[in-house]
Amino acid sequence: MQEKINKWLWTFCFILFVSLIGYSIYTTYIQKQIHSYDTRFYSMDTYIYVQLYETNKEKAENALKEVETIYQKYHELTDRYQSYPSIHNLYFIHHNESKEEWISLDKGLYELIETSISYKEKSGGLFDIRLGNLTDIWKKAIQEETLPSMEELSISKEYQEIILENGKIYNNHANIDLGAVAKGYATKKVGEYLRKIGIDRFVINAGGNVLVGNHYGDDAYKIGIENPTSKEGDIFIKVKANNKAVVTSGGYQRFFEIDGKRYNHIINPLTLYPSNHTLSVTVITEDSLKADILSTILFLMDVETGLSFVEQLEDVEAIWYLSEDEQITSTGFQQYLYD
Q1: How far is CA 33 from CA 53, 212, 218, in A?
Q2: What is the pLDDT along the chain (339 residues), one digit of tens a residue?
Q3: Three-class SS state of 113
Q4: Strand, coil or helix: what is 88?
Q5: Pairing mode of beta strands 317-323, 261-264
Q6: Cα–Cα distance, 206 to 186 (Å, whole number)
Q7: Which of 204, 282, 289 is nearest to 238 (CA)?
Q8: What separation in angstroms does the CA of 69 have from each of 42, 81, 184, 319?
Q9: How many CB atoms lie within 10 A of CB 27?
């Protein structure tokens, strides 16, 4: 009896050993078949880089073409300065001559506007997409490097409310600015598309808006955060992450200075002036739209208020770059630091 048991055990161990060896060989084989495919293009006013890790070349190449299509779609929908045939985009909402009381919107644009509105209250009024008039004034000011008058800024507060209902927007010619969220939303949609077709290993960098999926090996992606004081685009810190969005907001790329004071493009709707509490804020969380919105909100808050705000949120960490000698992080940010 004991001899039969011993024989059975030896057989079981042998089968298990062969299975483990087979699995190891299979895994190694699959990993060797994974190739990197990438594309670079200009969309949404920034250069976008996408890299996929996939075993099927045709699948990867078709996916990269679709990724570019998705970004172009949301560029057109959120464009405030140009109309497109048969598209009800932000330009159309503001400038249309339609007599219709309600305008039908693309599902994605409707969702983006609806989500953005929800953050106005959450941010205490700091995040407000209604103020296209205000951002237009400051865009011109940055281009001409001249300060707008208080009269101009005060008039900009005469905005139209945004009213949504059943996939439509009330046609009161609202001047909507989605510049703080459009890239985050498009990047989110790209990530969802890639996972839907079975590609979960990827890196997307849409001009400071980074989204990564599963790592192509047994590791985590290393992501560099740009130093806002460097003219060469150097990084000041590296973070590691999988299946996360890493998004930075800062006033160091579009700005002008008068009498030693910097005026950037991220405007506080409560003061009507740019915020200068920090040079940049980087947010890490799972959702790239959420990260895009939060990075803007935190940039507009003073650091103490921002820290308190972040600590109340789940799965959100942030780092503030105040100067070359001072950076402040939220409590759980350390888990993402790359040694």
Answers
A1: 10, 21, 15
A2: 444 444 443 433 333 333 433 444 334 434 458 999 999 999 999 999 999 999 999 999 999 999 999 999 999 999 999 999 999 999 999 999 999 999 999 999 999 999 999 999 999 999 999 999 999 999 999 999 999 999 999 888 888 999 999 999 999 999 999 999 999 999 999 999 999 999 999 999 998 899 999 999 989 999 999 999 887 779 999 999 999 999 999 987 888 888 888 899 999 999 999 999 999 999 999 999 999 999 999 999 999 999 999 999 999 999 999 999 999 999 999 999 987
A3: helix
A4: coil
A5: unpaired
A6: 9
A7: 282
A8: 12, 20, 16, 32
A9: 10
- Lookup result for tokens 């707008």: 148
Please choose, from the candidates 339, 297, 295, 290, the residue with its C-alpha nearest in 3D space to the C-alpha of residue 315.
290
Angle at 186 between CA 223 and CA 311, to 5 degrees: 55
Task: Give strand ranges (E) for 151-243.
Answer: 164-165, 168-170, 202-206, 209-212, 221-226, 235-241
Contact 98, 172 (CB under 8 A): no
Cα 55 to Cα 59: distance, rounded to the nearest angstrom: 8
Residue linked to tokens 């057109």: 76
Q: Where are the alpha helices (DSSP H) in 34-181?
A: 57-77, 90-95, 107-122, 132-144, 150-155
CB 138 within 8 A of CB 262: no
The two counts, helices (H) then strands (E), for the chain are: 9, 15
Whether residue 166 contacts residue 155, with contact meaning beta carbons closer than 8 Å, is answered with no
Closest CA to 181 of 293, 300, 274: 293
Tokens, residue 102: 């309600």
Sign of CA dihedral 39, 42, 44, 49: positive
* CA distances (Å), origin 298, targets 125, 282, 325: 12, 9, 20
